[in-house]
């Protein structure tokens, strides 16, 4: 659901006025989790990502290039399954991720990926904003994986909200560990003006997803503030992780916990300041008695009510 | 430059079928605005290009005001050539597109930026296919001028777009610039293109096309029918060939119709981009 919205916006809000009319039968591009299972969490050696999809578009007449199927080519169309371009692109990008740690987020990685899938590297020339397509694909995959992890029963009930947030961010950032050596390049690709709309949208969806999982349902102005702050925490941790060489990124997680705590403390401070201002406002124009009553009320409210 | 793309897929378009079969027949038997027999069209077109071969490049520059260079640059940019690719440029007689692809692959700057290994560079093959030997000779001459006479990567082949001599699934890219208008049976050329391309290979067609913008259309028609044949007479000494040229542009199917023909040949992700308001259109597609 998120991804089709993103892709629609991506197609419509591009730099030029190129319009692409979609076929009526365009299906959602969310890739089933079984297909992506070995992708982000393990190292680059997860080689079975295309096998669930492989049997969908295997071409029986591909093994014999000189099989003389010239005149019969047109008739074959009805028999062999039509591989849609979107599927093919997803397969190529997925296979390319394996080459990213070595070749970077570049066309070379995508051409190597296309060779793995058995498709001519020319197809890379037709991806819009080539390297960005690869990075965005990866971001989508990680978001999908995160959603799957949450759905499949992550234990969040016993944790306080700040710990829940820290845990979710940690899970998400750990997906990037295999690509850490080339992650600065991915960040710079995402920061390119042409790609900013999409990368911003993807990060917004990620932050939204994390807040949903934490259990937040607020829809007032607070919504923007919460997401902005979480976005800030996520980004700073991500950047900190780039230069963290400690064992299992321990320093990063410490940094993350501190930042989350800061954010919650900030929230508390703002709330206290608000109440204090209310009290002052209440006190002005009333007697000292009224002021004292107001302060007592506030103190009992603060100690008795929930902190979040 | 207004950009517009439409994607079509192989699906049932039976409603359009009859009308475009009719227009296909008319393309096969039309030589400009004249009606000719199918068998003769190929010969007549051959004569045209034999006549214009020597002044082809100069006339291109004059008629388009040098814009044809930009159009071809855009075509090659869209193709994104890579080292080791096998590319076929059909009706590419004088080699404009082929030279640009060669430069794109071998450019020093590109090789410095990307990790290109020399072995794959060696494997690059650019085939230039043209039905007319005079055009090919002009192309070979230009190659010699650039010092590419004996270069293994550029191969000049005489052949017919409707019956290519290349193997199935052997090409990474197929381009045809200002050539598909001249073939007798467009669908045969498209079918051949589909045949020789590998899976994932791209089809790109640069062609003069139809202008719909109201006032601009009138200006364009005026320019086409009043100015170009006169230029042909003046510079190339051949009015009839250039009259054929402008008439054949009008008889060629419009952008949408041509896009559906490409889709019918089996291609996926068929798109087109109008340049200069539709004077020129680049159709692109992928074989999957």
UniProtKB/TrEMBL annotation, chain B:
GO cellular component, one term: extrinsic component of mitochondrial inner membrane
Primary location group: mitochondrion
Higher taxonomy: Eukaryota, Viridiplantae, Streptophyta, Embryophyta, Tracheophyta
Protein species of origin: Arabidopsis lyrata subsp. lyrata
InterPro entries with a match to the protein in the record: SAM-dependent_MTases_sf (IPR029063), UbiE/COQ5_MeTrFase (IPR004033), UbiE/COQ5_MeTrFase_CS (IPR023576)
Ranges annotated as spanning the membrane: none
Reactions performed catalytically: a 2-methoxy-6-(all-trans-polyprenyl)benzene-1,4-diol + S-adenosyl-L-methionine = a 5-methoxy-2-methyl-3-(all-trans-polyprenyl)benzene-1,4-diol + S-adenosyl-L-homocysteine + H(+)
GO molecular function: 2-methoxy-6-polyprenyl-1,4-benzoquinol methyltransferase activity
Known EC number: 2.1.1.201
Localization in the cell: Mitochondrion inner membrane
Similarity annotation: Belongs to the class I-like SAM-binding methyltransferase superfamily. MenG/UbiE family.
Record-linked Pfam families: Ubie_methyltran (PF01209)
Residues annotated to bind S-adenosyl-L-methionine: 94, 130, 160-161
Keyword S-adenosyl-L-methionine: yes
SUBUNIT field: Component of a multi-subunit COQ enzyme complex, composed of at least COQ3, COQ4, COQ5, COQ6, COQ7 and COQ9. Interacts with PYURF; the interaction is direct, stabilizes COQ5 protein and associates PYURF with COQ enzyme complex.
Record-given protein name: 2-methoxy-6-polyprenyl-1,4-benzoquinol methylase, mitochondrial
